Amino acid sequence: MLFHSFEFLILLSITVLVYYIFPKSRVYALAWANLLFYGASGFNYLVLFGIVTFISYFLALKLHESKNNLYYYLGLGLNLLNLLFFKYSGFLLSNLTSLLNIGFQNQDEFISRIILPVGISFYTFQIIAYMTDVKRDEIEPERSFIRFWVFISFFGQLIAGPIMRGYQFLPQINDVKSCIWKESRLKYGIYYIMMGLSKKLLFADYLATYANRFFDSYMNFTMLDGWIAAWLFAFQIYFDFSAYSEIAVGVGHLFDLDLDINFKSPYISRSPKEFWKRWHITLSSWIRDYIYIPLGGNKNGFVMQCMFLMTAMTLSGMWHGAAWTFIVWGAYHGLLVIFHNIYLRYFSDFRNKLKDKKWYNALSVFVFFNLTSIGWVFFRAKSFSQAIQIIGKMFNAGNLTITSFQVKYLVIVAGLCLMHVVEYLVRKNEQEIAGKIQKHVPVPLRALGYTVMVLALLVIAQTEQSTFIYFQF
């Protein structure tokens, strides 16, 4: 069920009404909404999701009561095996076949029958984080299965995040009976939902058409074509993924629930470290807390720190998809982080002299945005060889041409960069801007503007039913 579908609008509206009319039944209202939302993707996968959730809930209780880590490893194994089977069995089988030069009977038929359950990567990581926190005695296990189900399956963020932690979200779910209707929550909810829908329908889907056209004709790329393709996809995936996350935050506001902001204008980042504090924030913090730090973090010397970073970032790439392109994308970002750490370690005096210079910061943003765009080629390409060919063309200065066709897209990219900066400034000063709008723009005019925007988005939503990119992960 897509966020920009009429079915979702009906489900959301009915759930909000029931939620506030029957305060004692709020947890059950959310539980049923979650069932209907996920069930729309397929009854069999709903049953699988329910079984995995219940077993994880039971094992977490037993783990807390007995302090026997066997229950933790059983829960970890269950969730990882579930993820590995549906997401990686085809990839592993295909690579094993190629490596050993053997074939398995009915292999292609077996792989074709495996359909990836929507949201499996996100709910798996959320359950693993919960069980790990219970094991570490950082949280108490949830005693009510209904509340645990709502925590794991909240329909606002189930399919593509943000990834919520138990200490953040469970207390809110336990306190839903005391929630009261707040006009400010309604306004913020609609604000985030409208912002997300605008990003998806007006920008992400629009850019997808052109990005796809470029990548489909990569064999004829000039140097500039390759860069334009990378830049277009960089903004397409940003608008697409941040759109889902912001709609999720908006849905949370409607139920007086706080979900994490997952994106904070990532393309103004000056370094890899800053980028991962702005891009897919809940995943990068998950990788840090449940992979990088348990491996050893920065406690075992610089060389080991680099190895742990490389491992964590490569696993992050694997999480995104069962393909070598995603693994290379993760490893590429690992190398960017390592090289930046080397720069900070051995050229700190040089950096300290320049870090307050505006031109240096602007140059850092420009360089890192383009380094990130190179990585997106691996993410977007259909194969590793295609990605290498495109990147090779991007650095083939002998094939540089500038046509009026390319100038058109350069203007579009420049406009997108400007919009990104404006978005950052608006987010930074949104309270002040909102106050000025309320003070200087009459209520009827504001209402008319909002109504026109809502109607326009609803019309577009009925004609454009493209899914979100991260649904496949």
Automatic annotation (TrEMBL):
Q: How does it sit in the membrane?
A: Multi-pass membrane protein
Compartments where located = Cell membrane
Question: Biological process (GO) annotations?
Answer: alginic acid biosynthetic process
Q: What is its main location?
A: membrane
Q: Which residues cross the membrane?
A: 6-23, 35-59, 71-93, 114-132, 144-167, 188-208, 228-255, 326-347, 359-379, 409-426, 447-471
An example of a Gene Ontology cellular component annotation for this protein is: plasma membrane
Q: Does the keyword Cell membrane apply?
A: yes
**What keywords sit in the KW lines?**
Acyltransferase, Cell membrane, Membrane, Transferase, Transmembrane, Transmembrane helix
Task: Select a single GO molecular function from the record's annotations and give it.
Answer: acyltransferase activity
Domain of life of the source: Bacteria
Q: InterPro entries of this UniProt entry? A: Ac/AlaTfrase_AlgI/DltB (IPR024194), AlgI (IPR028362), MB_O-acyltransferase (IPR051085), MBOAT_fam (IPR004299)
Similarity remark:
Belongs to the membrane-bound acyltransferase family.
Q: What is this protein called?
A: D-alanyl-lipoteichoic acid acyltransferase DltB, MBOAT superfamily
- Organism taxonomic ancestry: Bacteria, Bacillati, Bacillota, Tissierellia, Dethiosulfatibacter
